[in-house]
Amino acid sequence: MKESLMDVLCCPMDKSELELEVDERADDEEVLAGTLVCSECGERYPIEDGIPNLLPPDMRDDVPA
Amino acid sequence: MKGQEWYQADDVAAEYDDKRFSRGGRLIDRREKEAVLDALGPLEDKRVLEVACGTGRFTVMLAERGADIVGMDISAAMLEEGRQKAQAAGVSDTLEFMRGDAARLPFPDDHFDSVVAMRFFHLADTPKSFLAELRRVSNDQVFFDTFNRFSTRSIYNWALPMGSRLYSRYEVDSLLEKSNLELVNAEHDFVFPYGFYRKIPDDVASAFRSLDTKLLSVPGFDRLASVSYWDTRV
Q: How far apart are the CA of A5 and the nearest CA of chain B, in angstroms?
């Protein structure tokens, strides 16, 4: 995920802003692992293998990776 | 016996490729891509969202033509395929894949110029709420396809293990009205449904496609089409 995507993304639940916590980068721009945290409801959305998972929490468990 | 297992595995793989890349399969793929490209028009710097993008068949094509695009799907495995396709095409800079739910999109209102949903609505359990959400994030266009009721596909559908949701024109009109979307163009195609084209031998696929196109040119016969492409505006 490119960090510039942060300008676009919002929380799927309440559409509030997200904050990025980076665990691993490929380069200055590309985030490979981390978390997106909703500034309003606090919900956490993981970034895995460079792909942000913005599925709402109720859908995360039923869906096979 | 090991050899036998190999043979069977090869057989499975070959059959998979046959279905996907048979002449009939390619005819469908070409028609769908044409429908998307025609509807979206010039793509340079256009902000596009594709929901249910799967392995990125359209996402990568649109990125190659200059769109600034997000491909969203529920499945990480499908997106991984898409990411490899995007890397091979050299379009990773203008394309982002993410997992998400089409009924609760992680984007602000009016963000995209075009929102595309191909092969999506036949799987949608609550089409009205999905369409309303697609509209919310678009400032101009929403483009999608449906499989039609009152077409050959209705008959064919009985034989399908996974029930597809079929739409009559009345249902689509009503959905658009409730979602406050204006229809600007509709195209109706494939008297013979997709499944038929995937099953027939390669050497007759083009002949059936040509017959199909002729049938649809007869006035009133477009009612027999199994697929419709809907181009709408907010």
A: 8
